Recover the amino acids of this structure.
């Protein structure tokens, strides 16, 4: 029996989320990403595509190409919430779901034609996602993951496309070789040097020639060009780690600023844990120096999601890690080995009021935003740019929680 694979992709996901939050951004040129010169474009609206802007481009170049665009730093927590909402809708409707990224999904609909047409079901599912989340989404339907993904990309924006069984090769043939997943810029340049620009040429090439030029990847590219892909779906499972990183606009040795940043990261990630009903037992701190040498240290700890347990661990790891006294380009914090659970009182050093304090703080954050409540140490200038510090209180300052480290 032939498989039926549905691919779903939320169109310009970060931009769409920002437009849901602020309707005045509709039909305007929007670019989301790091706002410094070293930042990278995470998402660009279709209005900016005519100027050559695309995701992954240095923000400095995007500003030169499209200076009139509205630039937004964005908020990872906000996008995660929208992604989770869409994931829950899809999980309730399809028998097998693979979540390949925050805005991209595969669903296996094999056998569902016995009850109703898969294309009709897919179309109704797409409409349901848009109706319940407000996010535009495109879909592609075929017998495998590769053809479905390419079909989705051809259907964009906010549209759908089905490739009938047996028409995979004719559909792919006239398209650029860059449309095949696995063909990046380096591989594309090699194809160009060979005089190959479209998929039709690859379909006619001997498999032996592809493997001699590209090795094992050559066989995979040749199979995908011919519409062959037996890759199974990997059932969606919850993430096992969360992390945050900050690349500085200028390399720095300001230890106070560095500590301010990692404490802000540690605090925000701890809130993300509690909001998701998770605990962590492994903490990692990463440093990248100006010479691009990257170092990290991690430590196993008792399961927790409490700021006052995690922040001292993060600072301790940073002290052990920062020993070269060179300019630092990037710092990061990661919590891994996650498990489901809620914060429990430590009988030796916690009180009931500590748990109640976290509940009250988190309730404010859920209602007014991640940064509506923060520790005093995270108010430094260097910490302001790691998340969305938009003030939710109409000009009033955020609530500040003063603290001191033991």
């Amino acid at each position: 029996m032939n498989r039926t694979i549905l691919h779903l992709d939320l169109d310009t996901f970060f931009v769409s989320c920002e437009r849901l939050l602020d309707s005045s951004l509709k039909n305007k040129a929007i670019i989301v990403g790091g706002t410094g010169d070293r930042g990278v474009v995470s998402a660009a609206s279709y209005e900016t595509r005519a100027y050559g802007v695309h995701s992954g481009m240095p923000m400095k170049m995007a500003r030169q190409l499209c200076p009139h665009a509205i630039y937004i730093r964005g908020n990872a927590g906000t996008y995660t919430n929208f992604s989770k909402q869409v994931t829950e809708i899809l999980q309730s409707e399809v028998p097998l779901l693979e979540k390949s990224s925050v805005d991209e999904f595969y669903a296996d609909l094999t056998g569902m034609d016995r009850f109703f047409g898969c294309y009709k079901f897919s179309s109704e599912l797409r409409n349901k996602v848009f109706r319940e989340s407000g996010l535009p989404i495109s879909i592609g339907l075929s017998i495998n993951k590769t053809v479905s993904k390419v079909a989705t990309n051809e259907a964009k924006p906010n549209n759908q496309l089905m490739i009938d069984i047996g028409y995979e090769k004719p559909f792919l043939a006239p398209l650029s070789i860059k449309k095949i997943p696995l063909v990046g810029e380096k591989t594309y340049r090699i194809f160009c040097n060979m005089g190959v620009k479209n998929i039709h040429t690859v379909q006619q090439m001997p498999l032996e020639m592809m493997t001699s030029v590209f090795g094992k990847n050559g066989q995979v590219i040749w199979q995908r060009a011919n519409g062959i892909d037996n890759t199974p779906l990997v059932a969606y499972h919850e993430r096992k780690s969360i992390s945050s990183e900050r690349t500085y606009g200028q390399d720095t040795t300001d230890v106070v600023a560095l500590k301010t940043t990692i404490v802000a990261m540690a605090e925000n990630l701890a809130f993300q844990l509690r909001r998701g009903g998770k605990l962590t037992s492994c903490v990692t701190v990463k440093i990248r120096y100006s010479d691009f040498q990257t170092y990290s240290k991690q430590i196993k700890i008792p399961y927790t999601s409490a700021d006052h347990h995690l922040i001292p661990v993060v600072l301790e790891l940073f002290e052990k890690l920062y020993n070269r006294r060179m300019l630092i380009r990037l710092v990061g914090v990661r919590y891994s080995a996650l498990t489901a659970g809620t914060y429990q009182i430590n009988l030796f050093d916690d009180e009931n009021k500590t748990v109640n304090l976290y509940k009250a703080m988190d309730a404010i954050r859920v209602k007014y935003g991640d940064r509506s409540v923060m520790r005093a140490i995270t108010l430094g200038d260097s910490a302001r740019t790691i998340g969305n510090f938009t003030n939710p209180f109409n000009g009033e300052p955020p609530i500040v929680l003063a603290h001191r480290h033991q």
User: Anything to note?
Assistant: The CA atoms of residues 86 and 298 lie 33 Å apart. The radius of gyration is 24 Å.
